[in-house]
TrEMBL record:
Predominant localisation class: cytoplasm
Species this protein is from: Oreocharis arfaki
Bias (Gly residues) ranges: 9-21
Any Gene Ontology biological process: protein transport
Membrane topology recorded in Swiss-Prot or TrEMBL: Peripheral membrane protein
UniProt-listed InterPro entries: Snf7_fam
UniProt record similarity statement: Belongs to the SNF7 family.
Family annotation (Pfam families): Snf7
Endpoints of the signal sequence: none
Keyword flag rRNA processing: no
Name by which UniProt lists this protein: CHM4C protein
Localization of this protein: Cytoplasm, Cytosol; Late endosome membrane
Domain of life: Eukaryota
Length: 236
């Protein structure tokens, strides 16, 4: 058995005997401490490598033996540094896997709590009562829509009268007014004397004709004005 196996076996035996193994939080804390320790060891080795390189440059060919010893030490430090790099990569992978496993465990645990809570809530629910409730809600919505439609419709006050009859009565009133206006209008009589051959002074009777104007309907007034224009042109 390797020293590392003995170390982990011995270090975790006390905790595992009492509680059946470390918790994820404890394991993650241990891994972070190990990462921190190895990172400090990396910094130390990098410093020693730079120092040995400086020694090798200092002696050079003047003292080959000392320079070679410095380079050998540098190689050993580089080998240890590479080993630490691999160890850190393994520890980082293990820590990330443990963190993901712990997260998944917590998620599943919370989902289980939620499922139990939903089950407890649904224990007091009756599907038949829910169907009846939804049916009542639908019926009340229909009633509310009918009430809204009835309120929004325009009140038909006065619609009991026939519109066609009212229009016929209005036309009769207009015709009576037109007939009355035609009875009140008197057309001028045509003069019996012969008209002068050349234009001259207009007789008084012709002037009277031009002064007559209709007084009632617009249509009759236009016809009278046309007749007076024709008489005036004929008299002149």
């Amino acid at each position: 058995m390797s020293k590392i196996s003995k170390f982990f076996k011995g270090g975790g035996s006390a905790a595992s005997k009492g509680r059946g193994g470390p918790s994820p939080q404890e394991a993650l804390a241990r891994l972070r401490e190990t990462e921190e320790m190895l990172s400090k060891k990396q910094e130390y080795l990098e410093t020693r490598i730079e120092r040995e390189l400086a020694v090798a440059r200092q002696h050079g060919t003047k003292n080959k033996r000392a320079a070679l010893q410095a380079l050998k030490r540098k190689k050993r430090y580089e080998k240890q540094l590479n080993q630490i790099d691999g160890t850190l990569s393994t520890i980082e992978f293990q820590r990330e896997a443990l963190e993901n496993s712990h997260t998944n465990t917590e998620v599943l645990k919370n989902m289980g709590y939620a499922a139990q809570a939903m089950k407890k809530v649904h224990e007091n629910m009756d599907l038949n009562k829910i169907d009846d409730l939804m049916q009542d809600i639908t019926e009340q919505q229909d009633v509310a829509q009918e009430i809204s439609d009835a309120i929004s419709n325009r009140a038909a006050f006065g619609d009991e009268f026939d519109e066609d009859e009212l229009m016929a009565e209005l036309e009769e009133l207009e015709q009576e007014e037109l007939n009355k206006g035609m009875r009140d209008v008197r057309l001028p009589s045509v003069p019996s004397t012969s008209l002068p051959s050349r234009p001259g002074k207009m007789p008084p009777c012709h002037f009277a004709f031009l002064m007559i104007k209709p007084c009632l309907s617009t249509r009759r007034r236009a016809e009278d004005e046309d007749e007076m224009k024709k008489l005036a042109a004929w008299a002149s």
